Amino acid sequence: SFLARLDITPQPGERLVSVFCYANAALAELPACLADAPTLILATPGTATEQLAALPMPRKVRVQALPWLSQPDYDHLLRACALNFVRGEDSFVRAQWAAKPFVWQIYPQHDGVHAGKLDAFLQRHLAGADPALSQQVQAWMLAGNGLAARGRPALPMCLAGLDSWQDHALVWRDHLHSQRDLTSQLLDFVSEKR
Fold first, then answer.
1. pLDDT tens across 27-37, in order?
2. SS3 state at 148
3. What is the CA radius of gyration of the chain?
4. What SS3 string covers 48-115?
5. Distance (Å, whole) CA 16 – CA 85
6. Alpha-carbon dihedral of residues 126, 129, 130, 134, nearest 10 degrees?
7. Cα–Cα distance measured from residue 64 to residue 7, given in angstroms and rounded to the nearest whole number
8. Can you tell me the distance from the alpha carbon of 63 to that of 72, in angstroms, rounded to the nearest whole number?
9. How many beta carbons lie within 10 A of that of residue 182, not counting itself?
10. Is 0.85 topped by the overall pTM?
């Protein structure tokens, strides 16, 4: 009903991918990366819609521009999609709670500190993950942030292992749920330092 309310009508077998991003050169490669299966890219207003509208789409890929969404509707969107491209902090957190595969475009900082933040997250997020999945997720995250090694494509040229990535997203969300709340952790930290 959420998709119908937004006039989103996936074709049979079509996967949904949401894109919410800052200006991103890697986005030019996204349609070709998703052309392995019928895909409907749902583009949020602003940069995502503008950048994707300027790109040619492979036969199996189409784009639909979204209207501005309320926060609850954005959460529904994240849960409805097979893959989410998110940016900044808030959508990054919400993507983790949605328990769907996501590529995080971290806010770029002029001194490059964002690369260290992304690396720190990936180390925690992928600890214990299957090595092939870990390699794939890292490749997508690094390329999506313009941090891929020189000579490598901006984005991996296929989206293999999406089922494994989905399984990992559920495990990661369960791990987050198992943690004690931040207030309790901070109170314990303060007590230890006294």
1. 999 999 999 99
2. coil
3. 17
4. HHHHHHCCCCCCCEEEEECCCCCHHHHHHHHHHCCEEEEECCHHHHHHHHHCCCEEEECCCCCCCHHH
5. 11
6. -10
7. 10
8. 22
9. 8
10. yes
